[in-house]
Amino acid sequence: FTGDFHAIGAANNLLAAMLDNHIQQGNALGIDPKQITWKRAVDMNDRQLRHIIDGLGGKPNGVPREDGFDITVACEVMAVLCLASDLMDLKARLGRMIVGYTYDGRPVTAHDLKAEGAMAALLKDAIKPNLVQTLEGTPVLIHGGPFANIAHGCNSVTATRMALKLGDYVVTEAGFAADLGAEKFFDIKCRMAGLRPSAVVVVATVRALKYHGGVEKAELNNENLDALEKGLPNLLQHVENIQKVYGLPCVVAINAFPTDTEAELHMVEEKCRALGVNVALSEVWAKGGEGGMALAEEVVRLCQQPNDFHFCYEDSLSIAEKINAIARKVYHADGADLVGNAPKQLKQLEALGFGSLPVCMAKTQY
Questions:
Q1: What CATH number does domain 4-123 carry, 3.30.70.420, 3.30.1510.10, 3.40.440.10, 2.20.28.10?
Q2: Per-residue pLDDT at 365 exceeds 70
Q3: pTM greater than 0.85 (yes/no)
């Protein structure tokens, strides 16, 4: 609503234009058009543009090649902006972004194209967090939106740090559930920004838990304790991951619906307490701040307790070891199978010096 997304898309597409222009003007870097990894961006989900061929129309109109568009929130510039600590750090991070490879396999960066300065200029206002307020006057910082199923899914580091300087307690969202959202919030954002969370709120609904238990969508308004019990292991696994994998205390917030019954709410509370986790009913949607008092009090209590926060894996592990750590500890799989070209890609990434970076997991929403 402030033009941030437009600026991010413009910076992304400026780099794409400079890349293609470099090839058109003689290609001094020796960029292989078949190994270009940088895509253009548009703030619309238009599947027709995901895979395209551009540069048609003869020599004056560029070099024909395969290309494509990402939605703006899924572009790398969005993720980079949200991890940057200030404008100069943003410029440096933009310069390190890889846009493709040369004919002999060397990476080409935005810095090689001398693009990061102009990109940073386009983003000089977008890097500033946006201050808004709730209906009750509570300050809220809205900033950034890296796509949670492929990027790290968290708001900006600058917004979080600003909030920590201005408030006694800061609540921030890590999108896409505790397995993906919380994992990347801890292992990427907290690691890179030096943040140490005090407590975790896992939000659930009785309706969703019954849906996990096999109830059809049209029947979710009806009490069904059997289905609820079948769906609860999903929630309990998220809670256990927070406690055992990351060493943090947590509370389950039940986002209340009018159709929830006392028996259903009691069952959720009982199962969570068996793990040593309290349940708080959240009725903020109906009662405003008053409906979140019980939850807020429990969060304050948890924040005052000592915790043993740690990451899922260490920086020193190989990329494959980090992937397997997430697969085993968070997803409770036997491990990850590297198939097709993946082993070769991991070797290439480590040869390029990226082995010490955190892993950004991606998954579909299905």
A1: 3.30.1510.10
A2: no
A3: yes
